[in-house]
Amino acid sequence: MKPLYLDHAATTPLDPEVRAAMLTWLGDRFGNPSSVHGHGRQARAAVDEARDRVADAAGCAAREVTFTSGGTEADNLALRGVLERWGPERGRHLVVSAVEHEAVLATADALAGAGRAELTVVGCDRSGRVDPAEVAAAIRPDTVLVSVMLANNEIGTVEDVASIAGAVRARNPRALVHTDAVQALGRLPLGLDALGVDLISLSAHKAYGPQGVGALVARHGVFPAAQLTGGGQERGRRSGTENVAGVAALVAQRRRETDAPELSRLAGWLTDLLTESVPGLDPTGDPAVRLPGLCSFVVPGSRSDLLLAVLDELGVCASAGSACSSGAPVPSHVLQAMGFGELAGSALRLSLGRFTTGAEVETAAELVRVAVARVRGGGGVGAPIR
Ligand code: PLP
Fold first, then answer.
1. Among 54, 148, 307, 339, which has the minimal tally of Cβ within 10 Å of its Cβ?
2. Best mutation site among 147, 183, 208, 250 for ligand 1 pocket (most ligand atoms within 8 Å of CB)
3. What's the gap in Å between 192 CA and the centre of ligand 1?
């Protein structure tokens, strides 16, 4: 049986339309966008078109989009580059939320550890919501950047970024606001003005595009200092020959309006099925304001790594929260910040995508019920199915 892929928050499959757009640039068409001849001009046109599409999706001007190697680089460029460019003039106080992805948290820690930033980490409530008033209370005259994500990758809570940005500006109009919208591309409306932010990080592989491609959107005039120097591509903001096939694949936001309601419907149904059939299972995150398609739970009496191994054996691709590169079981920092204590080691995330069907949701619910019963009963991989 084909495995049931319910880990779209880790990465999505390539959409056939996206694959077709990419294949054009992996076959007869090639060229360096900086070359002046025909091949180069064609490649330049493809990059320009991709930039227009991203600008459309992110509610910004094309010149405000810089392509990167993914969300991690976009987050690094935002934090490191803002501190480098604006720190000397505005101060080096950095505010981040405790539920950020490691691409923000580890970068903020590294900057603070190197003495380049003073860091304040703002907490959240039991549903993972960051309170705009708490962020505002952390703002100082020397705050240079605030970074709060739009949608959490582990629990799906959508932060009220517009209110957070408003509260920040009321305290310090010179402080810049960044949001990591990697999980939101193709699922939630974006926009520099709509969100009231200065910088937005995006990644293609969470939205039916390839891994290793992303963008940092930065309001005109605030662009961070380049962290990659060289040939001066991307208006000198990020040197390196553009990934033409990769950026040609950035088309996801186009189907948001049809995708998002269906993803929310299926995820709500899966959550209901599991809450009914698995005793003690507790949905995590904000039940009302959620990333379409993301279901998250804690499952008392079952360790994440054991449950994932059994689910894998049963043909269900799931995750504990974030996709950890080491594969080692580390209790979720997000659930810990939310006050889940030891239960942070019992997280389960099921994330649906554009191609997930209702029949798959029903099968998944049954297989998760079986897997939890097996783990709770002390049986691991290879135990008989009950
Ligand atoms: N930010 C969030 C919220 C994410 O979920 C991820 C990926 O897991 C990243 C950043 C990193 O993006 P990328 O994998 O493109 O480097």
1. 339
2. 183
3. 19
Q: What single letter denotes the amino acid at residue 76?
A: N
Distance (angstroms) between ligand 1 centre and the Cα of 124 equals 20
- Is the separation of the CB atoms in 331 and 344 below 8 Å? yes
pTM value > 0.85: yes
Ligand 1 pocket residues where CB is under 6 Å: 70-72, 75, 101, 103, 149, 153, 180, 182-183, 203, 205, 214, 323
Query: In testing the pocket of ligand 1, which one of 8, 101, 148 has its CB within 8 Å of the most ligand atoms?
Result: 101
**Token reading at 269:** 């149904």
> In which region does residue 327 sit, left (phi positive, over 0), alpha (psi from -120 to 50) or beta (all else)?
left
Answer yes or no: are the C-beta atoms of 352 and 266 closer than 8 Å.
yes
295: tokens are 């279901």
Write the pLDDT tens digit of every residue in 259-300: 999 999 999 999 999 999 999 999 999 999 999 999 999 999
Mean pLDDT, rounded, for 91-111: 98
Phi, psi of 138 (to 5 degrees): -85, -15
Token pair for 106: 């580890």
CA distance 326 to 13: 22
283: tokens are 């949905």
Which atom of ligand 1 is nearest to 322's Cα? Answer: 8
Distance CA 237, CA 51 (A): 14
Closest ligand 1 atom to residue 75 Cα is 10
Catalytic residue annotation: 324
Which has the closest alpha carbon to 96: 339, 337, 341? 337
**DSSP state, 159?**
P
